[in-house]
Specification:
The chain is 72% helix and 1% strand. The protein contains 16 helices and 2 strands.
Length: 488
């Protein structure tokens, strides 16, 4: 990838999404830390009345982190890197610029409405798909606008070949479009019942086992095409640019891409193991989950081998630390998930705290680390100011790394303890422990998780402050920073 310094890129839309990434990241992690503390100290449920209970805040936490922080990060990095790999500026097309800004403002207004409705308890009660039908329509419009901007840029590009990052962004767009539409097909009861009831209320077009299957076909692949595919797009762009190293194997990146596309879509039924879903479907979900290790590790190993011969950069550049550790957590998380999908393991893990432990070592260690690293890389180039404090960045890295380790180890221990206690029987076949026995035993681990949440949140505040100072008062740069030459 050659330097594109000759072109003047327009980062106005990328900047707007950078701001919302930081805003929603803080809100999502603040709420997450509060609900983690509520599990350890239940009296905290009554701080804010009914609006501060775990049942109201938990959907708010997941949706703000997924659709607020992560998607804002995806769009910020796309509107930045997309121009550079396609060698075209958004400013060259007034139409694309208009669509990009409309994309942001419709998203921002829609996000605020979504937050308010969830806080009021207006939900269709489907995991990662809680929004009611009017908001779903707005989400579809937002997604279509992104597609128009993306394919508009691709259509006027100067670079004939599409770099691998663009493949992953396109897959993110197409995958979530299909998944979201099918899972959110619903019938508004206001119209069906002749105006009786809330205009926001609806019922799913699916029922029973079919509803569960479609929901987890969506749910797991929302993780695939929201937390995996676009984050891989980021690291394939930002790690080579930051390190000055070419991607280790472009062929491996393509092989891993198609592997993810074909395998990931069939793994969702591992969320409904030991249920009324047909046994062959459960087995298929388990098998495809295990096969998923291959393309996932193919991407992760390709990222790590990109640093071959240049590992000394880990000691020199905090951003390389973030990216390399993100890749490492990606490897660990994509091994842990398939292990949990094995039916005999899932019999212990199902419904336990090992599951949120797995989710968070992936999200906190892989997704958040990579998005923060990407924004740190972008900031000097977008705002033409050097990073305010690399020492703060270094301190943030170690604080948040410690927090992630505390989080997932406490939840691993808690989850396996839960699973074993729930299954334990005496010589007469009676359960040995009541539910409250497990709650009592797990209290120390919940406390550790809450502490880890506080530590990670403090690290994110450090990131936000560092970004703010970089944008406003850091030393101005006369020219764009260039990547480190491997021969230097």
């Amino acid at each position: 990838m050659q330097s594109n310094a000759a072109l003047e890129y327009d980062y106005s839309v990328a900047k707007l999404f950078t701001y919302t990434t930081i805003l929603f990241g803080f809100l999502g992690m603040l709420i997450g830390t509060l609900i983690a503390a509520q599990l350890a100290f239940p009296e905290l449920n009554y701080l804010l009345g009914e609006y501060g209970t775990f049942s109201r805040l938990r959907p708010l936490h997941t949706n703000i982190v997924i659709y607020g922080f992560t998607l804002s990060g995806v769009w910020a990095t796309f509107y930045y890197s997309g121009q550079r790999v396609l060698k075209v500026s958004m400013a060259e097309s007034k139409f694309i610029m208009f669509i990009g800004k409309l994309h942001f403002w419709l998203y921002f207004v829609g996000a605020l409405i979504a937050v308010i409705t969830l806080l009021l308890g207006i939900t269709q009660a489907k995991e990662y798909a809680q929004f009611e039908w009017p908001i779903d329509i707005v989400i579809v419009l937002i997604w279509v606008l992104w597609g128009i901007a993306m394919f508009g840029l691709i259509g006027i590009r100067r670079e004939k070949a599409l770099y691998i990052s663009m493949w992953y962004y396109i897959a993110c767009f197409l995958g979530i479009a299909m998944l979201y539409l099918f899972n959110n097909m619903s019938v508004p009861t206001y119209f069906a019942a002749g105006g009786v009831g809330s205009i926001l209320h609806s019922v799913s077009m699916y029922s029973g086992t079919n509803d569960a299957l479609v929901q987890w076909w969506f749910g797991h692949n929302a993780v695939a095409f929201g937390f995996t595919v676009p984050i891989v797009a980021m690291i394939y762009y930002f790690l080579p640019k930051e390190s000055g190293q070419a991607v280790y194997s472009y062929k491996l990146s393509l092989l891993s891409f198609w592997g993810l596309m074909f395998v990931y879509l069939w793994a969702g039924s591992h969320h409904v193991l030991w249920s009324t879903v047909p046994d062959w479907m459960q087995t298929m979900g388990s098998v495809f989950s295990v096969v998923l290790i291959l393309p996932s590790w193919g991407s992760a190993i390709n990222m790590l081998l990109t640093m071959k011969g240049e590992w000394n950069q880990l000691t020199e550049n905090p951003l390389i630390k973030f990216m390399v550790l993100a890749s490492t957590f990606y490897m660990l998380s994509t091994l842990e998930g398939p292990i949990q999908a094995i039916k005999s393991v899932n019999a212990i893990a199902h419904f336990t705290d090992w599951i949120p432990g797995h989710v968070h070592d992936g999200v906190l260690g892989w997704v958040v680390f990579m998005i923060m690293a990407a924004l740190f890389h972008m900031a000097p180039r977008m705002f033409k100011r050097e990073i305010y404090s690399k020492k703060m960045m270094e301190a943030q890295f170690w604080l948040q790394t410690t927090a992630v380790v505390l989080y997932f180890t406490s939840m691993w221990i808690a989850g396996i303890t839960q699973g074993m206690m729930w299954r334990a029987v005496d010589e007469y076949g009676n359960l040995m422990y009541s539910f409250i026995d497990t709650v009592t035993v797990l209290h120390p681990y919940y406390t550790i998780r809450a502490l880890a949440g506080v530590m990670y949140l403090i690290g994110f505040v450090m990131f936000a402050y560092n970004m703010y100072k970089t944008m406003t008062s850091s030393r101005e740069l006369s020219e764009e920073p260039q990547f480190r030459s491997p021969m230097a």
